[in-house]
Design brief:
36% helix, Rossmann fold, single chain, 291 residues, alpha/beta
Length: 291
């Protein structure tokens, strides 16, 4: 989608100059399920590209994925662990509204859940995503509850599934996670992150919020043994993939500044209007500088 590319390039444009000079972007134009290529086709395409980058001498590789791309980024770390050889894991995962639970079950749509609460707020709906017919097209005849196909749907859910993957258990690795308060995936993401990343669970979002405590909208942990560094944000009243679909118009402001010979940084933009772009840029400024 053009908006996704515009938002991503806007983050790059807003990076501090020294960080920007050390950063490059590669977009993986993987084959789509909707065009007849079920998972794990995309995983193998990512693996081919990742290995080529390593062969070229690249070591500090960051995986960024939104929605299905978020699932692909997480699934790739599971795939790397399964290989009977020494592997290089990505240094960071940037997960934007990751689709971690492949298909919601009937109890997921009961009153009091994000699937129920946000049915008429989000572009992701239970009726559409609970289709067994569509599930067959996505993964064929693979186990829909396997960790690889559905990281958030696998049962039983245990921390052991993630403790041997450094992206989730080693403080030398970083994860950036962002999702919306009003998106249907919200509860799935929170539950998955609670055992994969030791992210604190909360149900006080949207209509169920009992307080205006801002702490529940952000979480940061660094340098803790047994856990990857985690920077997480819940966008107030945000919907699925809002950062990439609804913040891309910042590119106009950036272009106007460039025509004037001015380079904008994250300090020059409205961090409320451009909630995700501002926070991801700040995160990259902080973490890439340390690499």
């Amino acid at each position: 989608m053009p908006s996704q590319i515009q938002s991503t390039l806007s983050v790059y444009s807003l990076l501090d100059p020294d960080v920007q000079r050390r950063t490059s972007i590669l977009f993986l134009d993987y084959k789509l399920v909707s065009e007849g290529y079920p998972f794990p086709t995309q995983l193998h395409q990512l693996d081919d590209t990742y290995n080529k980058l390593l062969e070229e001498g690249n070591q500090n590789i960051i995986l960024m994925g939104d929605s299905a791309g978020g699932h692909l980024s997480v699934a790739y770390t599971i795939y790397l662990r399964s290989l009977a050889k020494e592997v290089v894991y990505p240094s960071q995962l940037l997960l934007i509204s990751p689709w971690v639970k492949l298909s919601p079950l009937p109890f997921d749509a009961q009153e009091g859940t994000s699937w129920h609460e946000n049915e008429h707020r989000d572009l992701i709906t239970y009726r559409r995503f609970s289709s067994i017919f569509d599930l067959k097209h996505i993964i064929g005849f693979q186990d829909p509850f396997s960790l690889l196909c559905s990281p958030g749907g696998k049962t039983p859910r245990t921390r052991d599934d993630w403790s041997s993957i450094p992206n989730f258990s080693d403080p030398n690795y970083d994860v950036f996670l962002i999702f919306g308060e009003d998106e249907s995936f919200r509860d799935d993401i929170v539950q998955w992150a609670s055992y994969s990343l030791n992210y604190p669970q909360s149900k006080e979002y949207g209509a169920f919020a009992k307080s205006k405590d801002e702490a529940k909208y952000s979480f940061s942990r660094r340098g803790e043994a047994g856990n990857a560094n985690l920077t997480a944000y819940v966008e107030p009243m945000g919907v699925h993939d809002a950062m990439l679909y609804f913040e891309h118009d910042i590119v106009k402001t950036i272009e106007r500044a460039l025509r004037r010979g001015q380079k904008l940084t994250v300090k020059d933009i409205d961090s409320t209007k451009f909630f995700g772009i501002a926070r991801l840029t700040e995160f990259l400024n902080s973490t890439i500088r340390k690499c």
